[in-house]
Amino acid sequence: MCLAYAGSGTFTVEGEVHEIVSHPEAGLGIAFWGFALDTTALPEGPGWWDGLLRRERPLVSPRLGSLPAIVSALAAEAASPRSGVDAQVRALGSALVIETGRAFASPAELTVTVDPGARATSAVAAMRGYLADNLARPIRVEDVAAVAHLSDRHAARLFGQETGTPMIAELRRLRLEHAARLLESERPVAQVARECSYPESRPFITAFRALGGTLHL
After folding, report:
1. Rounded distance, CA 169 to CA 191, Å?
2. Domain ranges in the chain?
3. CA-to-CA distance for 33 and 156, rounded, in angstroms?
């Protein structure tokens, strides 16, 4: 594969012979890469890889996509290796192969069906997991939204739509259910309150009783 990223010139292919003629004034900048595509590992049906497998595919594609950025990122990693370089190069290499295939695939081969419900479910699951893992510390809506990479408003609306409960109400319920389990171990009420992000016992007791809990003080 060859990406012309600067200057001008011609690139002629005759059989196995490639000839590159660079413009005498505006030198032609080219990046080359190659890979072996394991077709046995590809799913059945059309996909990004079809543009690489069809014999009638075009030899030149103007659809660069993110290829220039990926090649530049790989060059930067090679120029200055840092911790994590192996994982980074593998990820960028995979992206390079996929984006190369996309450059030669047809629009029909690139079409996918996205289930909005599945995406929403995944985001809400991430938010609920964050709530459950942080019962002892103060939590803001923006903290929870950041986990799902959503705006505060969108996160709160999505959470309420899918769970039927406002985010803060769900957090309060999780904390008080956690408190009920802690109280079974006969820990002091003040300690349980702190472990459920209540700095003082009185608001904790009020909230716990409002949820139907019983405290023996």
Report:
1. 22
2. 33-110, 116-210
3. 45
Supply the pLDDT for residue 217.
43
CATH architecture of 116-210: Orthogonal Bundle (1.10)
Helices (H), 33-84: 50-53, 67-79
Tokens of 17: 């012979």
**pLDDT tens by residue, 48-89:** 999 899 888 888 888 888 898 999 999 999 999 889 889 899
pLDDT at 214 over 70: no
φ, ψ of residue 64 to 5 degrees: the values are -75, -30
pTM of the complete model beyond 0.70: no
Q: Tell me the pLDDT tens digit for each residue of 39-57.
A: 888 888 889 999 899 888 8
How many whole angstroms separate alpha carbon 130 and alpha carbon 108? 38
Spatial separation of the C-alpha atoms in residues 3 and 74, rounded to whole Å: 14
Q: Does residue 10 contact residue 20 with C-beta atoms inside 8 Å?
A: yes
In the chain, % helix, strand, coil (3-state, to 5) comes to 55, 10, 35
CB 32 within 8 A of CB 75: no
Which helix (H) or strand (E) segment is 13 a member of? Answer: strand 9-14
